[in-house]
Amino acid sequence: MTPPARDVRVRALWRDDPTEAPLTVDLRIEEEDGRIVSTWDVFGAFDLVGASRRPFILRRDGALDLGVAAPGLAWRTDLRDKAIKVGARFLVRWNETDVGEYEIVKIAELGTKDARS
Question: What's the structural domain count of the chain?
Answer without folding.
Answer: 1
